[in-house]
Amino acid sequence: MQVAVLASGSKGNAVFAEIGGTRLLIDAGISTRRIVKALEGLGEDIKDVQGVIITHEHRDHIAGLTTLCKKYHIPLYSRLETFRSMYCLDKLPQDCLNPIQDSFKIGQLAVNAFNISHDAANPVGYSLIGDNKKITVATDLGFVTSNVQEAIDNSDVLVLEANHDPEMLSEGSYPWMLKKRIMGNRGHLSNGDAAWALVRMKKRESHVFLAHMSAENNCPKLAAETITGIIKKQGIKLGSELMLQLAKQNEVVTLDGQFI
Question: What CATH topology corresponds to 2-254?
Answer without folding.
Answer: Metallo-beta-lactamase; Chain A (3.60.15)
